[in-house]
Design brief:
With 195 residues, this protein is α+β, with helices and mostly antiparallel strands. It has helices spanning 2-23, 36-52, 56-70, 72-76, 84-113, 155-159, 184-193; strands at 28-30, 116-120, 123-130, 133-140, 147-151, 163-168, 171-175. The chain has one domain. The protein is built from 7 helices and 7 strands.
Length: 195
């Protein structure tokens, strides 16, 4: 047990030294994210796949009916369009095309929601995973043209749906992911809002 604790402490020390060298200082504050929207999105996507996969068969029947209504087989005189099995192959292809598109959109949304937001001195750093690496975006908070919007209050405090949005001329430049406004996050918010 002592060896495991020693190994864990060495790992934590290594990560701390790595982050200090990455940020250039040990004085930084990280906004603690709310994982609930991401988890709900993953559960909703998985349940969509689980519950819709058995009904792919009906999609093939719909394609067969639709071609029959348009009377494409009579006009074009293509005999293999009268066989139902070809429409089932088409329906499987359409289902996996839609599923792949949905997975790409969900992954983009998750990468937008799960940005690591760190306040270093008077700069806001956002770190997100991009492909096989990380993408770092630095924003100076001293710029006069930026306007800050803080979405909070009511039920959004209880569900952790608070966000900070920075805009310039009405166009959103960057925003923080969803977070709870408690504990360390409250201190970071007060520091950003200068109150």
């Amino acid at each position: 047990m002592k060896q495991l604790q020693k190994l864990l402490s060495k790992w934590k020390e290594y990560k701390f030294k790595k982050e200090v060298s990455y940020f250039g200082t040990s004085l930084y504050d990280e906004l603690q994210l709310n994982p609930l929207p991401s988890l709900l999105l993953i559960i909703a996507t998985a349940s969509f796949f689980y519950f819709s996969l058995p009904y792919v068969y009906y999609l093939g029947n719909f394609f067969f009916w639709f071609v029959g209504v348009l009377e494409i087989t009579k006009v074009l005189k293509i005999p293999f369009l009268d066989e139902l099995r070809y429409y089932h192959y088409l329906s499987v292809f359409v289902y996996f095309y839609i599923s792949t598109s949905l997975l790409i959109d969900v992954s983009r949304l998750l990468s937008k929601w799960n940005k690591r937001t760190v306040l270093v001195k008077n700069e806001l750093w956002q770190i997100c995973h991009s492909g096989f690496g990380k993408k770092l975006s630095q924003y100076s908070l001293d710029t006069k043209e930026l306007s800050l919007t803080y979405e909070h209050g009511g039920l959004s405090d209880y569900f952790g749906l608070n966000r900070l949005i920075w805009q310039k001329d009405g166009i959103e430049l960057f925003s923080s992911p969803y977070f709870f406004p408690y504990r360390k996050n409250k201190m970071i918010i007060n520091r950003i809002l200068k109150r």
